[in-house]
Amino acid sequence: MKLPPPSDESAGPQDRYDAVRMRAKLSSRVFGRILEYSDRVGSTNDVILDLAGRGAPHGTVCLADEQSAGRGRRGYGWFSPPGCGIWASVLLRPRLSAALAPPLTLCTAAAVARVLEAATGVAVQIKWPNDLLMGDRKVAGILAETRVVAGDEPVIVVGMGINVNHPRDLFPDEISDSATSLRIESGGPVAREDLFLAIMSSFETAYGDYLASGPASMLAEVDARLAWRGRTVEADSPAGAAGRVSRVDEEGGLVLDRRDGGPLAIRSGSIKLRTDNLN
């Protein structure tokens, strides 16, 4: 079911959050019940890490209208202007074995993809290991960071950056060819509040299933949404490894079919498209 469109006063890129209204409308049982909302922060992940160190409970969420130092994987910046995106982080105090933590990023991506697709009617694919694409352009990214805080307790902070109502000319030149937004792809504005609330509900349900059953069922959905299947990519770990994207395995690794040497499972790092092919 598609989410309702923004009201007339919020239609367009300046769709405003109302923290009081969001708290009243929240349907998730835990995620977002403690909601730290700010007009502007450096990074929502950093806010949550600070709150975790001061004893914030599982499910605490930081949501911001703007990030001045938003970040993606490997320290890359994330363009987070005011009035048009969802920049949010969730605190998890997990009951997970070390082996189950790495696939969590992919499973979060699947939970978010469901909501974005329902909101827009546009297919969403998952580019391993953490990006959401519409077509070949990035519309969202997931960043999960594990830390040990007070009392030697491990926590996981799951950050999400979602391009919602960006017009095309808002993106900086360096990402204008690779980034997109829900508004661009669907042809109209999307209400950020309703989208955020739906994501909290979807993520909470998916996380509960993850704890109960492990990553297998969610990874099946990730595999069904896998971007670039059959296309030739190059991995940076191990350096120079290349092959055609085949599938996601039961541990969340990306399996590449190589011309020589058989399949190779990539466990970390990132991939990029190659312009040549392996015929």
Structural account:
- By secondary structure, the chain is α+β, with helices and mostly antiparallel strands.
- The chain has 2 domains: 19-224, BirA Bifunctional Protein, domain 2 (2-Layer Sandwich); 232-273, SH3 type barrels.
- It is built from 6 helices and 12 strands.
- The strands form 2 sheets. It has a 7-stranded mixed sheet, with helices on both faces. Strands 11-10-9-8-12 form a 5-stranded antiparallel sheet.
- α3 (104-120) crosses α6 (216-224).
- The protein starts with 18 loop residues before the first helix and ends in a 6-residue tail after the last strand.
Q: What is this entry, summarized?
A:
It is built from six helices and twelve strands.
Task: Estimate the mean pLDDT confidence.
Answer: 90
Into how many domains do the coordinates divide? 2
Q: Bin the strand percentage.
A: 25-35%
Annotation field: number of helices = 6
Main sheet strand line-up:
1-2-3-7-6-5-4
Helix and strand layout, with pairings?
Elements: H1 19-25, E1 35-41, H2 44-53, E2 61-67, E3 85-92, H3 104-120, E4 125-127, E5 131-134, E6 137-149, E7 153-163, H4 182-186, H5 192-213, H6 216-224, E8 232-236, E9 239-248, E10 254-257, E11 263-266, E12 271-273
Parallel strand pairs: 1-2
Antiparallel strand pairs: 2-3, 3-7, 4-5, 5-6, 6-7, 8-9, 8-12, 9-10, 10-11
Helix pairs in contact: 3-5, 3-6
